[in-house]
Amino acid sequence: MNVDRRQFMRLSGIGIIGIAAVPTLAACATASAGGTTLKIGAFFPVSGPLALLGEESWRGVQIATDLRNAAGGVAGKKIELKFADVPDVNAATSESRRLASSPDVKLAIGSYSSALSLAASEVFARGGRSFVELGAVSEEITARGYENVYRFNPSAGDFTKMQMRFISEYLSEKLGKPVSELQVILAHEDSAYGQSVAENAKKDAATAGLVNFSTEPYNAKSTDLSSTVLRMKDKSPDIVMAVSYAADAILLGRQIRDNGLKLGAFIGTGGGHSLMSFHEALGDAADGIFDVDFTQIYVNEKFTPGIQDFTSKYKERYQGLPASGHALANFTGANLLFDLLEKSGGKDDPVEFRNAATSFKLDQGKTAAGWGFELNDKNQNERSDVYIMQWKGTKLETVWPPEAAVREPEIITPFGV
């Protein structure tokens, strides 16, 4: 595949391009100019309970790496990913210690799961090395104050802020009630994931003027959520938001339907509500369900330049469409990382990388996920965001805000109640 560097930069803008074929990492083994390589640690769970979305995340990074290497690498250096499967926190800690002990690995990426990210980034930060998170959302990742820990993807707070914007700026009018009169409930699984989102939601609800906002925690491993649904039914909510994994998202939807809980709208928070398995289990009853999440493939392509190329390369390599937005998020984050390394002249020294990262700026709507780039004082990319999607048939289509949407939102009675 002959793509010279000038052509690559012209096609990519910030490194997101369309190339006729995607080589495997092994196929990119030929050293680039100067025979040098840039070694980057990569921590993702591709086995164990987190494997589904961990594998999706890793796939996005692999596609980005292969395309960049095929186009000449970064500053004449071939990118070499030092991969580690981290199915749990213990593995994340031990594998990060192993890679951080190598003098050639000064920078690492990961990791889908917040718990895994917290463990791995801690090791790299304490060792004076850099860690870039591409998918985990816990606020704590960047709140600890490590100057060499960065996050390029949206954080948990972005999810609830987008939900509250959607309620205030769109649903309130469509449901015929001012924000102050809407009854809104957040049903959430009660692990650290759900609790973190719930705490953010309470703050954002207060800011939005949702005075009738409450939460309903539940155990994600429960086989019966009817008591939770009946408590919600007693409050006659206009809107239910939810934070769920895969199985409990399906169970909650079925029991809302079976117990006749009539709603004006239902908004998921990523997780199980983004997965095809959710729609497959509920069928037509899932149509109309909203979900806030990382960018999905059904999105305004003018706002997400390069997304067609990403989707075609994913289909070519994995014989199907992405299972979630995690592959695209990590593809975009990896390309942003490579652009920063290009800016630093291919230097992964923590000081050189930090100087490049803190000075780089990019407007939204310039990457395959629609994200831009600008770090705040906690090293969080403030120009990455999540969007509102809605199930229609077998597609999770982006419907809000308008610049990212492929169609208008539709007000459909959730779960066919």
UniProtKB/TrEMBL annotation:
Residues 37-393 form the Leucine-binding protein domain. Gene3D superfamilies: 3.40.50.2300. Keywords: Signal. Pfam families: Peripla_BP_6 (PF13458). InterPro entries: BCAA_transport (IPR051010), Leu-bd (IPR028081), Peripla_BP_I (IPR028082), TAT_signal (IPR006311). Residues 1-26 form the signal peptide. PROSITE patterns: PROKAR_LIPOPROTEIN, TAT. Transmembrane segments: none annotated. Belongs to the leucine-binding protein family. This is ABC transporter substrate-binding protein. It comes from Pseudarthrobacter humi.
